[in-house]
Amino acid sequence: MEDAPQSPELFLFLAVTAHDMKNSISVLSGTLERLLDGATPETEKAYGQMGQMLYQTRRLNDNLMQLLALYKQVGKPGYPFDAQPLEVGQVVEQVVALSRVLLDSRGIRLELDVDPELIAHVDEDLIVGVVSHAVNNALHYTRDRILLTAREVDGQFEIRVEDNGAGFPPALLAAGAPASGDIGVNFATNSAGLGLYFSSEVARMHQHRGRHGAVRFENGGQLGGGCFILTLP
């Protein structure tokens, strides 16, 4: 049986629809952030539910952003990949700003261990998206602490997002990062692996002297839970 032809118009329609949905969800997310920023569990009875709503809207926003970024790479092969020399602290500051209200609403502490003099050649928007997604994922599994580290290790730029939860399941550790085009749907967890695929693709886009970036997972680390590790050449 032959594969059905892929229509450029269909890809464009899906991309425009995803962009429109992302804009609407961004408005909702921004409204929730403003409400939570001016409230406490003592002053707002629905504080906990609002925090959960913000977490879910951020997940949806992340997924749509990832779909759009992948569309630009697959649907528009000429889309520019913009790697620039940046202070790592600048990237981390953006991630912290994006996560602050959500972390506060869940009572989770984000700890930083960042080399302030480290310069990395990265596509800023893509890397901020990857690390923000990793923090949001850790937020779901941690008990109360997340550690974000950024430093040079063996001549490569390494970002780690660790938590003090139960760690990644053995199946995920064994599977590793997906190969290009390999997104599996897990109906038990309602996960399509989009975040992992997106992170792996972004890592592979970063290349230098015959090496490319990679994503891997470990359990343990400094906090004893799951460790998301992004390495870039």
The appropriate CATH architecture is: 2-Layer Sandwich
Terminal CA distance: 42 Å
CATH class: Alpha Beta
Main sheet strand line-up? 2-4-5-9-8
The gross shape turns out to be: globular
How are the elements arranged and paired?
Elements: H1 8-37, H2 47-74, E1 83-87, H3 88-106, E2 109-114, E3 119-123, H4 124-141, E4 145-153, E5 156-163, H5 170-175, H6 194-205, E6 207-208, E7 211-212, E8 214-220, E9 225-232
Parallel strand pairs: 2-4
Antiparallel strand pairs: 1-3, 4-5, 5-9, 6-7, 8-9
Helix pairs in contact: 1-2, 2-4, 2-6, 3-4, 4-6
Characteristic key phrases:
single chain; 233 residues; alpha+beta; Heat Shock Protein 90; two-stranded antiparallel ribbon; 6 helices
Written overview of the protein:
The protein is of the alpha+beta class and 233 residues long. The chain has a single domain (8-232), classed as Histidine kinase-like ATPase, C-terminal domain (Heat Shock Protein 90, 2-Layer Sandwich), CATH 3.30.565. The protein contains six helices and nine strands. It has helices spanning 8-37, 47-74, 88-106, 124-141, 170-175, 194-205, and strands spanning 83-87, 109-114, 119-123, 145-153, 156-163, 207-208, 211-212, 214-220, 225-232. Strands 2-4-5-9-8 form a five-stranded mixed β-sheet. The chain has a two-stranded antiparallel ribbon with strand order 1-3. Strand 8 (214-220) and strand 9 form a beta hairpin. The longest helix is centred in the N-terminal third of the chain and has 30 residues, at 8-37. The chain is globular and about 55 Å long. The termini are far apart.
